[in-house]
Every structure is written in structure tokens, then in C-alpha cells.
Design a protein that fits this description.
single chain; 4-stranded parallel beta sheet; 9 helices; 23 strands; globular; binds flavin-adenine dinucleotide
Length: about 375
């Protein structure tokens, strides 16, 4: 019998747990430890901030969902894994102390490095957690005139919600009859193509920005924020009345000082999703050291590959499943021109770009699908 431990109840952890439960017999024990009982469908946090959905629409109870798949769920805080001793240190929660494993999947996501930008905590909104999105929702209710600045910082590995939020603000203000009183600007540390897969997406994005009367300011790497002004490392600055930024990302704090991270703090894995230098340990999702954007569909594929290889090892076979890094994104523009891009990141190949109402709708359906299928 193998004792498989999964750390984290996000996209990667949930998909891996489900795959393992399907493949392994009931004589093996699968346990998931996560901080909260709820799974959150993060791509819908923009809709939450703009009052289009409520928390119940984008979450479900993991304990119940995992029980149905005979995965034991434990609500607890993880301090760090100890790969040399095949255990995980759990300071508090439903269990405490050292939890041992035969096979481990590390899927704790990334760290939001708000502390890297002086003034971020005090002056900027973000929408990367439920509470932050709800706080931003309150600010939006009280915002009627002035300059709205949205953006992503250097090392933020996620630009999609910034564009979606700017387009949603445009629509909300038009509905309220207040659009004339507001200027909307997006700032980014590099060119428009940077975090969004390259030049292919630029014409469609420029059209969407023009349609929504949103200005994009490139090469604005935010490095300081005060009560009324946001500053860039290039010396530029911009006054704002409402500020929402995606903070820099960093590797998961729980993996630091364990000898399994790259110089940026992300967990080092090979294409089989095995942690390099650690025995019977895998990692998947935002926590791993692959370059480029950090997205949910990547976490899902990586979770599947990790699960297939763990199961193979448990069954005495070679781990053969390999992950292929590709970008797939939908920018829900809210109207007829939502943008879909698919592009290989490791291999040569054409990008596929599509536009139309269907893609925004498909993203919404995806949220419903996760709630229905996985709950
Ligand atoms: C606003 C927003 C919009 C997005 N839009 C898109 C999009 O349009 N398309 C797309 O593909 N992706 C999108 N993403 C990215 C996507 O949500 C992430 O890539 C995905 O959630 C990563 O999955 P993960 O399993 O690696 O990590 P997470 O989903 O972050 O899960 C990590 C899990 O670990 C738990 N955890 C963390 N630390 C601890 C600890 N110390 N102890 C116990 N438990 C812990 C957490 O509670 C969580 O359950 C968006 C994200 C956000 C925030």
C-alpha cells in the first residue's frame, strides 16, 4: 500500500487527486492537505469584483468532493516539506506535527510578493484572493470620477485579469452613465505582447483597448506607490484615483530553504513533473520553475502528468508521461470580441488566435463545469 500526500487544493492538487483516485486501487491511501476547505475558481474573481457573481458561484466544498473520490481531506497549514525524511511539517490545523508520506505532490501555488513594492499594502488594490476582490468591489462601488490605473508589476506572471478588469470597468461606467468622467489606463513592465504570448495577440488587443477607450502604457515597471501616485523604475510616474495592480509573484514560501528551488524560489521539476534532487516527490502548478505566464490550464495538465507518473511508479513502472508547456488564454472582453490564444511555448509551432462572443461564454461555462464536475 502506498501513502500519497497532496499539498494544496487548487487546480493542480484537485486534478491530481482525482486522477490518482481513478487509477489506484482502494488499498492505496490518498490524502490532501490544504489551508481552506473551499476550492476557488480564480479566473472568476474579476466577475466577483464587478458584482457579476457571488463567492458561492465560484467555489465548492473540497472535503465533500474529495470524500466522494475516497481522498481524505485535512484542513491544515503546511510549514514546509522535509524531503530527506519523507514528511511534511504541519504547524496547525486538523493534524499537527510531522505527516509522513511515500509519495508527495507539492501544489501550493505561488507567493504574492506585495512586500517587494513599497506602498503596495497601503495604497493598491489587487484581485488575486477572494477577500482582495471583495475589497476592490467596495472601492468600485464608490468610484465615480477620476483616473483608474490598472496594471501588472515586474515578475507578475498573470496579465489576463488586468485587461478583463479594465474592460469590465468601462462597461460598468457606461451602464451607470459615468464613463465620460473617468480615464482608464493599463500599465505594464514591457510591451503589450509581453505576458500574453507574443506579437500575434497585439492587433486584437489593440482593437479591444480602442473599443473600450483604455490607454496602455508600456515599459512602466512599478517600483513605488504613494497615496495618489504610482512610480516606475524608469523614472515615469502617474497620478491615480483608483489603483489595481497584480503584484510580483515569487516561489512558494513553504519550499524555501528545502533545497528544491531555483534561484527565483520556484520548485525545480523535470518534464515528468518530478522534483529534481528529491526522492518520490513531484510538483505541479504555479509553484514550479517553468518560464512564462502562470495559468490554470497549465496547472491542470501538470497535475495530470504528475499523477500519471506517481501512479506508474507505485505500480512499479517507469514514469513516462511528459508535460508540454503551451499557452492558452481567453481575455473575456465582455462583448462580441473576446480573444482566444493558443501557442506552444517549448516547441516550434503556429499560434492560434480566435475572436468572438463564444470565447467569453466558454470561459463562463468552464467555471460552471468545474463546480459541477468536481464538486
Ligand atoms: C484573478 C485571477 C484570474 C485568473 N485568470 C486566469 C485565466 O483566465 N486563465 C487561466 O488559465 N488562469 C487564470 N488564473 C491563474 C490560475 O488561477 C492559476 O494558475 C491556478 O490557480 C494555479 O493553480 P495551483 O493549483 O498551482 O495553485 P492555487 O490555485 O493557488 O492553489 C494552491 C492551493 O494551496 C493551498 N495552500 C497554499 N499555501 C498553503 C499552506 N501553507 N498550507 C496549506 N495550504 C496552502 C491554497 O489554499 C490552495 O488551495 C487567474 C488567477 C487569478 C487570481
Amino acid at each position: 500500500m502506498a501513502n500519497v500526500l497532496i499539498l494544496g487544493g487548487g487546480f493542480a492538487g484537485v486534478v491530481a487527486a482525482e486522477s490518482l483516485a481513478k487509477r489506484l486501487g482502494s488499498d492505496h491511501q490518498i490524502t490532501m492537505i490544504s489551508r481552506h476547505q473551499e476550492f476557488i475558481f480564480y479566473p472568476s474573481l474579476v466577475k466577483l469584483a464587478f458584482g457579476q457573481v457571488d463567492v458561492a458561484d465560484l467555489s465548492y466544498n473540497l472535503r465533500e468532493a474529495m470524500l466522494d473520490r475516497r481522498v481524505k481531506f485535512i484542513e491544515a497549514e503546511i510549514a514546509y516539506p522535509d524531503p530527506d525524511n519523507n514528511c511534511v511539517i504541519v504547524p496547525h490545523g486538523e493534524v499537527q506535527g510531522k505527516v509522513s508520506y511515500d509519495y508527495l505532490l507539492f501544489a501550493l501555488g505561488r507567493h504574492l510578493a506585495l512586500e517587494d513594492i513599497p506602498g503596495f499594502y497601503d495604497h493598491s488594490h489587487h484581485l488575486l484572493t477572494v477577500n482582495a476582490a471583495l475589497k476592490f468591489r467596495e472601492a468600485l462601488k464608490n468610484f465615480h470620477a477620476g483616473h483608474a490605473v490598472f496594471g501588472y508589476c515586474q515578475d507578475s506572471r498573470l496579465a489576463v485579469p488586468v485587461f478583463e478588469a479594465a474592460f469590465a470597468l468601462d462597461r460598468m461606467l457606461k451602464e451607470r452613465g459615468e464613463r465620460e468622467q473617468v480615464t482608464i489606463t493599463i500599465v505594464g513592465p514591457e510591451k503589450l505582447s509581453g505576458q500574453l504570448g507574443g506579437e500575434e495577440v497585439v492587433p486584437a488587443l489593440q482593437q479591444a483597448l480602442a473599443d473600450h477607450n483604455v490607454e496602455f502604457v508600456a515599459e512602466f515597471p512599478v517600483n513605488k506607490i504613494t497615496e495618489k501616485t504610482v512610480f516606475a523604475a524608469t523614472g515615469k510616474k502617474m497620478d491615480y484615483d483608483l489603483l489595481m495592480l497584480v503584484p510580483p509573484f515569487g516561489g512558494p514560501g513553504e519550499a524555501q530553504y528545502t533545497g528544491i528551488t531555483d534561484p527565483n524560489g520556484y520548485v525545480r521539476v523535470d518534464r515528468h513533473m518530478r522534483v529534481t534532487g528529491a526522492y518520490r516527490m513531484y510538483a505541479a502548478g504555479d509553484c514550479v520553475n517553468f518560464l512564462g505566464p502562470k495559468m490554470g490550464h497549465m496547472a491542470v495538465l501538470q497535475g495530470m502528468v504528475a499523477a500519471a507518473n506517481m501512479a506508474a511508479e507505485i505500480e512499479g513502472q517507469e514514469p513516462e508521461a511528459r508535460y508540454n508547456h503551451e499557452l492558452m488564454l481567453v481575455i473575456d472582453e465582455g462583448g462580441k470580441d473576446s480573444i482566444y490564444l493558443q501557442k506552444p511555448l517549448w516547441e516550434e509551432g503556429e499560434a492560434s488566435l480566435k475572436q468572438g462572443r463564444f470565447w467569453g461564454w466558454a470561459k463562463h461555462v468552464h467555471q460552471k463545469y468545474w463546480q459541477k464536475i468536481h464538486a
